[in-house]
UniProtKB/TrEMBL annotation:
Keywords: Methyltransferase, Transferase. One of its GO terms (biological process) is methylation. Coiled coil: none annotated. This is S-adenosyl-L-methionine-dependent methyltransferase. Residues 48-170 form the Methyltransferase domain. Belongs to the methyltransferase superfamily. It comes from Rhizopogon vinicolor AM-OR11-026.
């Protein structure tokens, strides 16, 4: 795995394209938590195995694969790196044909219809867009713009009773600002669950109420 010289490179397309190009065809990496770590939460939040699920910034994580093996077949995986999308599409097209892989930027989600998904999942993607910030208490305007743009697009594509699941190491006083506020134009409820014991991760669950 190629690590960046500077932390803020995690937020650039160049870094991810270079990394995925250099990695083996069967390489995989899961940020923060694996599906097994959070499966009980996911099953409670998504009781229907027919739910339409959008995986935001999928990379080469096995999270979608493991969800598929658990019975969730209708998963659309998006990432802005065409290199990783092509690799993942080739890896799964024969054994998991129901899953789709599309090149898309989570800040725009161009081509995805309004109210077309039941669930959207972000595991570390929004965090990557925050890496240019050296002050978590006062992030730069571009970080705020990028993160709120992602949330706004997620709200657009989620159905009336849809759910946005965001898994991160970010504590609530640093992350709630992106999940609430003027850019959240729909009525929602937010729940926060703490994951892990020695090092805490968090699962934010933003439910659409209208």
């Amino acid at each position: 795995m190629s690590l960046p010289h500077k932390n803020e490179e995690y937020g650039t397309e160049v870094y991810w394209d270079t990394r995925y190009e250099q990695e083996a065809e069967d390489a995989s990496f899961d940020w923060f938590k694996t599906y097994a770590d959070v499966a009980d939460y996911i099953r409670r939040l998504i009781p229907s195995k027919d739910a339409r699920i959008l995986m935001l910034g999928c990379g080469n994580s096995k999270f979608s694969e493991d969800m598929w093996e658990d019975g969730y077949k209708c998963i659309t995986n998006v990432d802005y790196s065409p290199i990783v999308i092509e690799k993942m599409r080739n890896r799964h097209k024969d054994v998991r044909p129901e899953m789709t892989w599309e090149v898309k930027d989570v800040r725009t989600l161009d081509g995805l219809d309004f109210s077309s998904f039941d669930i959207a999942i972000d595991k570390g993607t929004m965090d990557a867009m925050m890496t240019s910030s050296t002050d978590v208490w006062d992030p730069p305007e571009q970080v705020i713009k990028d993160c709120t743009a992602e949330v706004s697009q997620v709200l657009r594509v989620l159905k009336r009773d849809g759910i946005f699941i965001y898994i991160t190491f970010g504590q609530p006083h640093f992350r709630k600002r992106y999940l609430t506020g003027a850019h959240v134009t729909r009525e929602t409820s937010l729940e926060v669950n703490q994951l892990g014991e020695s090092f805490h991760y968090y699962m934010y669950t933003l439910r659409m109420l209208q």
